[in-house]
C-alpha cells in the first residue's frame, strides 16, 4: 500500500470510530447551564485604532457599522464596544488638538500601534458614528506624570458628554495594570498600591463627571469594568485585589479580565495544536473558572458577586500570527472558545481588534499593510451570535457543553424555557485546501465525520441545518455562514446570499428521537429544533 492509500484507510477508520458514539442530550436545562449576559458577543477595539474602525461624524465607517449590526440582529442586543488596550495607557488628552488622534510609532516598541499618542476633543466624536451600539471608554492610568494626570481629568467632561445615557456601559481605568511593575511603576508595585491608586483616580474621575454630567455620576450610572488584568493572577492577583477591597465604593459592575490562548511568537504554536484544539481552549478557560470560584468564596463584604467577563481576548497575543490567526481555522477556534466561555458563565466576551492586526475580524480601512475587508474570524463571531440566540427574550438562552469533546471536536446545546432549541457541532480537525498553502494541501477528499444525538423525549419532525463553511481550515477568504457572505466587496458587510453554497438543508428526526449529522472536517453546524 502506498502512503496515500494507507492514509485513506486510516482516515476511514477514524470516521467510523466517531460514528460509533451517540451523545445523549438532557431532557431539560441542566442545572449548571451557563447564562450569557446581553451583548455576549462583543468587541474590544484598540484605542488608537478606534478612529479607523468608527470614523468620525463627517466620515462614519459604515462598513464596520454593518458588521456590528449583523451581530446585533442575530442576538437582539447590540455588541458592546470596549475602547482600550495597550494604547489606552499611552494616550494623553490635549484639548487643543484639532484632529481626533495623533500617534507616533517607535519600531523598537511596536510596529502595530503608536506608542506616543495625543487625543483631542474630536476623538470622542467617534462614539457617535454607530447609533444603537454601546461602549466602554478606557481612561489612562499607566502614565502618572503630573501632566498626564491633569490631562486625564481634563478628558473626563468630553468623555462623559459623548457617552451619556444608554450608550455608556462602563468606564475603565488602566489597561493590564498587572504588568505595570518595573515598567511604569516601581518593581514593588503590588495589589495594595494598585487598589489605593485605582480608588484615588476613580473618585477623581467621578468628581469631574459630577461637575460636567451630574446624572452620569449617580450610584446607578457610574460604573467600571475592572481590574482589566491580562490574566487573573499574573503579576497582580484579582482575588487579592478584591480582598484588598478595590470595590469599596461599589462602582465595579463587571469583573473584567483579559485572555489570549498563547503568543504569536511563542515556540511550538500551531493551528491544530494551539487553536483548533478543544483541550487547549479548556485549559485556557479553566484559569478563569478557578478565579471565579475563588472570588465567589470571598467574604460577603468583599464579594460583590459580580458577573465575570473577558473584556479583551483573542487567539495569539502580539496581534496574532499570519497563517494561523487570520484563517478559517481561527474562526472555528473563536467559535469553540466563546461557547465554552458561555457554558461556564464567563458571561460576555470582547474580542480584541486593531487596524492591521493579524487576528482581527475585519480591517476597517485600506492601509499599506492590509486590504479593507471582512476577515475569516468574523464568520466565527456570526456563528457565536446565531447559536447563543435572542438575548433580549424573557426566556434567556442557556448554554451547556455536551460530553463529546475530545480535542478534535466539540458540541454545545442551547435551551430556552427549559426546552432544547439548538445544538452546535464544531469539527476542529484541520483540512488544507488553499493555494497559498500549496505545499500542505490535502490531496484526499475532505472527510465527513458523523455525529449522532439522542434527543430529549418529544423531539420529532424536522430540524433546520445551518453551516459555517469554507474550503478548508487554511482558507482566508470564501467563508460563509448559512450560505451568506458578509464580505466588504459584495455589499459593504451586509449579508449576501451566495448561489454556489448549499443552504436550507433539513433533516428528519427518526422515530426513536435520534438524529445523525455529517460534518465535514474544519466546519461547524447548528441544528435548530424550534423551527416549524
Ligand atoms: C452558571 O450560573 C447559573 C446561575 O447562577 C448557575 O445555576 C450555574 O450552575 C452556573 N454554571 C456554571 C458552569 O458555572
Ligand atoms: C497640544 O496640541 C497643540 C495643537 O496641535 C500643540 O500646539 C501643543 O503643543 C500640544 N500640547 C502638548 C502638551 O503636546
Ligand atoms: C474625520 O475623518 C476624515 C477621514 O478619515 C479625516 O480626513 C478628518 O481629518 C477627520 N476629522 C477629524 C476632526 O479628525
Ligand atoms: C524608541 O523606544 C526606545 C526604547 O524604549 C527608546 O530608547 C528610543 O528613544 C525611542 N525612540 C524615539 C524616537 O522616541
Ligand atoms: C427577541 O425577543 C424579543 C422579546 O421577546 C422580541 O421582541 C424580538 O423580536 C426577538 N428578536 C428576534 C430576532 O426574534
Ligand atoms: C495544514 O497546513 C499546515 C501548514 O499551513 C501544516 O502545518 C499542517 O500539518 C497541515 N495539516 C494537514 C492535516 O495536512
Ligand atoms: C473553493 O473551492 C472551489 C472548488 O474547488 C474553488 O472553485 C474556489 O475558488 C475555492 N475558493 C477559494 C476562496 O479558495
Ligand atoms: C462561490 O462564489 C463566490 C462569489 O462568486 C466565490 O468567491 C467563491 O469562491 C465560491 N465558492 C466556492 C466554494 O466555489
From TrEMBL:
Pfam families named in the record: Glyco_hydro_79C
InterPro entries associated with the record: GH, GH79_Enzymes, GlcAase_C
SUPFAM superfamilies, alphabetized: (Trans)glycosidases
Leader sequence segment: 1-20
One Gene Ontology term of the molecular function aspect: hydrolase activity
Keywords, comma-separated and alphabetical: Hydrolase, Signal
Domain Beta-glucuronidase C-terminal: 411-526
UniProt keyword Acetylation, yes or no: no
Protein name in the entry: Glycoside hydrolase family 79 protein
Lineage: Eukaryota, Fungi, Dikarya, Ascomycota, Pezizomycotina
